[in-house]
Specification:
GO terms for molecular function: ubiquitin protein ligase activity; zinc ion binding. Keywords: Metal-binding, Zinc, Zinc-finger. It holds the Pfam family zf-UBR. By secondary structure, the protein is mainly α. Among the domains are: 106 residues, no CATH class; 116 residues, Herpes Virus-1 (2-Layer Sandwich); 50 residues. 35% of the residues lie in helices and 8% in strands. The N terminus and C terminus are likely disordered.
C-alpha cells in the first residue's frame, strides 16, 4: 500500500526509544565508565584521566574569578553535589578532586572529609567557568543559532567550534583522532615538524621491521645451517649453536633493544623544510590515530617536551580513546539496557504493548512541556522538580482510571 503524503509520521516506536537509549548509554559509558562513581578519587592523587565537573552552586564566583575555579570527580558530583548546578567538563588529565579542599573550603566532602593538601598541580582553563573556544562563550550558547561541531584540543583540553579553528576546509570527525588548536601549535612549534609527515614515518617504520626466520626452513640458509650444525645426539642443551623454540624471539628483542638505545642519541624529528612549511600554514592541526608514537624520543626532544610540559604526548594511554575503551570494557557482559528491554518487550502481549506506547507518549509530551518552562525561564531543574512532576503525573493517572483497571505503566 502506498503511503499517503499527508500521513502523520511523527510517531515513535518503543524500539526507536530503546535504540536511542542504547546510543545514549554507550556514550555515557564511554565518558563515565572509565571513572569511579562510588569513591572520591582524591586519595589516588592526580589521576591520569577522569570525568570532571565544576559546581557553580558551591562556587558561583568561578564564573568571573579565575582563582575560584575548581573541579570535582564523578563520585562527588553524585554524592555531594547531586542537586546543584554542575558544569560537565568531559575529561581532564592529571587532576585531583577539589571537593571539600582548599578551593572549596565551605564544602564538606561526604566521601573523603579530610582534604588538607592544596592541589597545586591542577590546571584550570576557562571551561571551569563555563566558557569555551576562542569566542569565550558557554555551551550550549543560547545566543548562537549556528549549528556547529566542537572538538577538544589534546594539549590545552579546551573545546573549540570548528568554524573558529582557522581551517581552510572543514574536517569530518572520522578523518582524525586528535586535534591541536592554533594557540597550542604556536606554544609548541616543534609539532610543525610532524605536520604531513606521519604517513611517511609510518611507512619508514614498516620498511625497517626486523624479519627473522624462526622455523629454520629458509631455503637460502638450509645448506649452510646443516653444515655448521653439530650432531644432534652430541649437542647439549647449553650449546649456543643449538636452535631452541624459546629462543626464537631473541633476535627480534635484541634488535628492538639496540634500536631503542640508539634512539636516545639519534634525533628523528623531521626537518622543517619547505614542504613542512607548506603543509602547515596556520590554525589547528588534525592527527590520525597512533600519531604520538612517531614523536622523536631522543634525549634532546624529551627535554623539549618537559620544557613545554607536554611529556604526556609520549603516553598513548593519555588519549581520550584509550580512556573511553576502558569505560566500554567495564560495561561487562550483562548486555545493554536496550538488549534487556527489547527482550522484556518481546514477552508482552500486543494489548499490553499498546498501553505502554500510549502511556509513554503521554508522559514524554507532558515532560517536554514541563522542561520547556525551565528553559524559557533559564532555571536549573532539580531532583525535587522531577519528583514533583512524576508525583503529579501519577496522581492524574490514578484519578483518570478510578473505578476501572489501571493501564499498564512503568512504575
Amino acid at each position: 500500500m502506498e503511503q499517503k503524503e499527508d500521513q502523520d509520521t511523527s510517531y515513535v516506536t518503543m524500539a526507536d526509544i530503546l535504540q536511542e537509549q542504547e546510543e545514549l548509554e554507550e556514550t555515557s559509558q564511554a565518558v563515565l565508565g572509565g571513572s569511579d562513581e562510588k569513591n572520591c578519587t582524591y586519595s589516588k592523587g592526580y589521576v591520569d584521566r577522569q570525568a570532571l565537573y565544576a559546581c557553580l552552586t558551591c562556587v558561583p564566583e568561578a564564573r568571573g574569578d579565575e582563582s575560584k575555579r575548581s573541579g570535582i570527580c564523578l563520585a562527588c558530583s553524585l554524592q555531594c553535589h547531586d542537586t546543584h548546578e554542575l558544569l560537565e567538563l568531559y575529561t581532564k588529565r592529571n587532576f585531583r578532586c577539589d571537593c571539600g579542599g582548599k578551593r572549596m573550603p565551605d564544602v564538606k566532602c561526604k566521601l573523603e572529609p579530610r582534604k588538607e593538601e592544596e592541589n597545586s598541580r591542577n590546571r584550570y582553563n576557562q571551561n571551569f567557568s563555563g566558557l569555551y573556544c576562542t569566542c569565550h562563550r558557554p555551551y550550549p550558547d543560547p545566543e548562537d543559532e549556528v549549528a556547529d561541531e566542537m572538538a577538544q584540543c589534546v594539549v590545552c583540553e579546551d573545546w573549540y567550534h570548528m568554524r573558529h579553528l582557522e581551517l581552510d576546509e572543514p574536517k569530518k570527525e572520522k578523518d582524525y583522532a586528535e586535534m591541536v588548536c592554533g594557540g597550542c601549535m604556536k606554544a609548541n612549534p616543534f609539532l610543525k615538524h610532524y605536520v604531513g609527515k606521519i604517513d611517511e614515518l609510518n611507512k619508514e617504520t614498516l620498511d625497517d621491521t626486523v624479519q627473522v626466520d624462526v622455523t629454520g626452513l629458509d631455503e637460502s640458509n638450509t645448506t649452510a645451517a646443516a653444515a655448521a650444525a653439530p650432531d644432534a645426539d652430541n649437542a647439549g642443551p647449553s650449546d649456543p649453536k643449538q636452535r631452541r623454540l624459546d629462543d626464537s624471539k631473541a633476535p627480534v628483542e635484541e634488535a628492538q633493544k639496540e634500536k631503542q638505545a640508539a634512539s636516545l642519541d639519534i634525533c628523528t624529528m623531521p626537518p622543517l623544510c619547505a614542504d613542512a612549511e607548506k603543509a602547515y600554514k596556520k590554525g589547528a592541526t588534525f592527527w590520525t590515530e597512533g600519531w604520538r608514537k612517531y614523536l622523536c624520543q631522543c634525549k634532546s626532544c624529551t627535554e623539549l617536551y618537559k620544557k613545554h610540559s607536554v611529556e604526556y604526548l609520549l603516553n598513548e594511554k593519555d588519549t581520550v580513546k584509550h580512556y573511553e575503551d576502558v569505560g566500554k570494557q567495564k560495561q561487562g557482559t550483562q548486555g545493554t539496557a536496550y538488549e534487556q528491554a527489547m527482550q522484556m518487550l518481546g514477552q508482552l502481549d500486543r494489548t499490553t504493548q499498546t498501553d505502554m506506547f500510549i502511556e509513554y507518549n503521554r508522559m514524554t509530551s507532558r515532560l517536554r512541556e514541563f522542561l520547556d518552562q525551565f528553559v524559557a525561564n533559564q532555571q536549573v531543574v532539580t531532583r525535587d522538580d522531577i519528583n514533583e512532576f512524576f508525583a503529579k503525573l501519577n496522581k492524574e493517572r490514578r484519578e483518570s482510571t478510578a473505578g476501572g483497571p489501571p493501564p499498564y505503566f512503568c512504575r
